[in-house]
Amino acid sequence: MNYSTIKKTAIAASLVAALGYAENAQAQAQVFGGRSQYRTWSIGLQGGITTPNVLIGGQNAFGKKVGYFQNKVGEYYGLTIRKQFSPLFGLELEGNRGKIKTYNHDLYVNDATGAGFEPGSGDGTGQANSAITSVNWAGSLNGVFQLGTIDFLRRENAVNFYAKVGLGAFAYNPVQYANNTFDGAEVYNNKGNWGDEIFGDRDAVGDRDYRLGMYVPVGVGVKFKLSEVVALNLGYTMNFTDEAALYGPSSSDSKQRFANVYGGLEFTLGSRDKENLTFANPVSNLYDELKDPSLRNEVEALKQRVSALEGTVDQLGKDSDGDGVSDKFDKCPNTPAGTQVDGSGCPIKFPEPVVQAPAATTGEYFAPIGFEFDSSVLKTESYATLDKLAKELRDNNKSVTLDGYASAEGTEAYNLNLSKDRANAVKQYLVNAGVPASSIIANGYGEANPIASNDTEAGRVQNRRVEIKK
Fold it and tell me: Which domains does the chain have, with CATH numbers?
């Protein structure tokens, strides 16, 4: 294994470890992340009152001027379904129904009919002192914008301010009365005669109980977090309609408006183990990242671990003698510059080829006995050769010299001992086969006299041997 491979492996391992640690730290802190770590759906129930004017003022068509116009409150209630997309913005589907009430303090003539009569004439053409507009249903899609929080240094706020604007449609029917008690003679009631106002002729006569119109809700509010699930919602909405007849026929073609003040409860859906995105504060999350001691400790621990891994990589890459093999794996340190070395950092020897010739006059030739890498244990395939050798030595009362060798892996001192062990292993086998120990000489020569190149595995296999000399 060369230095380049070692370095790549170590760097890859360090990156995997660092990323795994960082991911675990982030999972524990949960400071950053997408919407999946929050609860984003909620439903709300609300109820309140309506007024026929709005805070920004303006003329109301039921009276000739604002001074003629008097507030009466009507009931208004509904529900909301909201999806929060970020700590700053969400979409809300809102539905309501209820009544809007108004009356004139001073009597006036209904100029829409061109006639003027005393109150209570009861013929439908006289003076209208009051009106009730029934809103059968009103539905709108609103964009809700989070404006701020009181607890701006907490990850989850307790109080949130918001503003909303949307677009909706509603079905309504106004009834005008000749007095201001809302139960006198009806001057005007078109219920059952409305046409298709939105998609057809707005003046068409039909059989609908309610007139269809469009409106734009614009409002502000505040939410108080009561628990992880429930919040108190208080708000005020101005509703700008596209209707001149919101309170019945009038002498003005101005578009009408009304407002509603409401209060209600909002219920957050989802697991309580997750934060409510409505009350999550990204600024305080950043504050936590900078100020939270536990997070700082995790970051510092990660830095120390990365530094340790970088030090290990540098140590693995250190090559003091410049032979291309790191000190960690260099078995021959301080090799002279320019020396060709093998994978263990030891000089490569290039001996003259040795031709092994069988002895012509000393009996049968016996091939060298081979061994496995770093082993002095005899292979079973050597037994037949050694049995023949033992028989020849016994029958002819001859002696034999055993020369043990090793390939070039490892240090020279280690390989010298290994070669002696291999020669003694062959000697012991012959002694066990009946050859006198005095007839056997066992020598070890380590890496000397290789019969093949140590640069290849095939050559190193040939060099792991014991030669038999008679």
Answer: 37-280 (2.40.160.20), 369-469 (3.30.1330.60)
